[in-house]
Amino acid sequence: MLRPDFEKSGGLIPAVAQDADTGEVLMLAYMNEEALRRTIETGKAWYYSRSRDKFWMKGESSGHVQVVKEIRLDCDADAIVIKIKQLGEAACHTGHRSCFYMKWDGQGWAEEGELVFNPEEVYKK
Question: Using an 8 Å Cβ cutoff, are 46 and 80 in contact?
Answer without folding.
Answer: no
